[in-house]
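Supplementary Methods. Inverse-folding protocol.

Structures were first reduced to a discrete structure-token string of length 396. This string, shown here, constituted the complete conditioning input.
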């Protein structure tokens, strides 16, 4: 019977999971799946590592953040892999606040502390923590481990970590944290395997998914990122506005008489690609649409992403390597191509034929910057951290 770890990745647009065998030095995937709560009858789908269907079940009605479906996942695992195989559940927790620079075994107190960070990640934190509460209720003896999106950026230092507001707020934790760290950590590791000569260089990883952010890395460590105190800052996202004049928020409250809750809802749920296009938050839908508003939303997305690459390159003092990842970064060649074109002045050249291929190195031979597409795997990062933690030798 293998030692296994169940990994949950609750993102803003999906809940994914993976079951990993952690008996060997490197975790290996046993099965993966998706909890789809968007349908009238929530659905659990489990596939083998090659993507072949293993199991599917539906519930009659939606429940709180897939609670019953999490119990179904446990039942499936115990049925398939034996009752005592599961050593821990590892969770992607989006906000770790100022205290966590690495993974931590969850207690009720820590979970409550993380719940208190909900105002700083209202789209994510409740979705990440709901399964923690569910598992604690149905399997109180099970070890649960939090792995934070913020931890990879814990080394951010001034001036990159600061806002230009009075220092007393920084002392209270109002600073740039950064997110998508589990993804950046995985991709940085893959880059050092694929192109070890670039590992010590100046790299930007563009995680372009439903949420989107850039990370500037030197020597494989984060030195700047586009998200800040919250995952609202930076790039244009599916339904989030990204960087915005803070005066807009004051205007909306003072002149549009919007409440704090209404402004929050507007910026997290009704803005970004969805708000600008008025059509969809989904990049696939926008790229396939003939509507002008769809094209304008896509244009704004690539305009702001390219601007942000130049900004991160300034932090790095130049650029050796740009990596695309996330649902859009991995699959939307049009978006990679448009960002590359906007950065031609920096010497970036994307090779059209390589860009059409799904992954790998995509720069032309005349490019001043190496450009890659590397699929992310946040679940693998979590599995590695959990395996190290349960073996009692965790290093961050
Ligand atoms: N083939 C594709 N072409 C363009 N966009 C795609 C493609 N596949 C996925 N995407 C986009 O990726 C985004 C979702 O990214 P993903 O990283 O899966 O999301 P999440 O942040 O929820 O993990 C959506 O905007 C989706 O349209
Ligand atoms: C932090 C964040 O934006 O995550 P996601 O991409 O899953 O929305
Ligand atoms: Mg994601």
């Amino acid at each position: 019977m293998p030692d296994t770890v169940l990994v949950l990745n609750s993102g803003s647009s999906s809940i994914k999971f993976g079951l990993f065998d952690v008996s060997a030095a490197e975790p290996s995937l046993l099965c993966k799946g998706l909890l789809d709560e968007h349908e009238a009858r929530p659905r659990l789908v489990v596939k083998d590592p090659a993507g072949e269907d293993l199991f599917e079940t539906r519930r009659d009605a939606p429940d709180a953040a897939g609670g019953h479906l999490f119990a179904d996942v446990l039942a499936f695992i115990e049925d398939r892999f034996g009752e005592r195989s599961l050593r821990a559940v590892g969770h992607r927790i989006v906000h770790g606040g100022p205290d966590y620079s690495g993974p931590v075994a969850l207690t009720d107190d820590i979970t409550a502390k993380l719940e208190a960070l909900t105002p700083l990640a209202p789209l994510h934190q409740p979705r990440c923590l709901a399964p923690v509460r569910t598992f604690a209720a149905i399997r109180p003896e099970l070890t649960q481990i939090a792995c934070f999106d913020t931890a990879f950026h814990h080394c951010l230092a001034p001036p990159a970590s600061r806002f230009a507001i009075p220092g007393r707020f920084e002392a209270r934790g109002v600073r740039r944290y950064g997110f998508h760290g589990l993804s950046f950590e995985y991709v940085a590791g893959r880059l050092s395997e694929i192109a070890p000569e670039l590992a010590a260089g100046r790299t930007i990883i563009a995680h372009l998914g439903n949420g989107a952010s850039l990370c500037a890395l030197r020597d494989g460590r984060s030195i700047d990122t586009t998200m800040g105190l919250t995952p609202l800052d930076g790039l244009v996202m599916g339904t989030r506005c990204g960087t915005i004049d803070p005066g807009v928020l004051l205007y909306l409250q003072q002149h549009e008489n919007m409440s704090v809750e209404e402004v929050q809802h507007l910026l997290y749920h009704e803005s970004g690609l969805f708000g600008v296009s008025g059509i969809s938050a989904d990049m696939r839908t926008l790229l396939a649409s003939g509507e002008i508003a769809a094209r304008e939303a896509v244009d704004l997305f690539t305009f702001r992403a390219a601007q942000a690459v130049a900004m991160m390159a300034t932090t790095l003092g130049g650029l050796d390597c740009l990596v695309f990842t996330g649902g859009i970064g991995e699959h939307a060649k049009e978006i990679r191509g448009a960002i590359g074109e906007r950065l031609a002045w920096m010497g970036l050249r994307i090779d059209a034929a390589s860009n059409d291929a799904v992954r790998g190195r995509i720069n032309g031979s005349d490019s001043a910057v190496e450009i890659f597409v590397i699929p992310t795997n946040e679940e693998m990062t979590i599995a590695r951290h959990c395996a190290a933690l349960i073996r009692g030798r965790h290093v961050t």
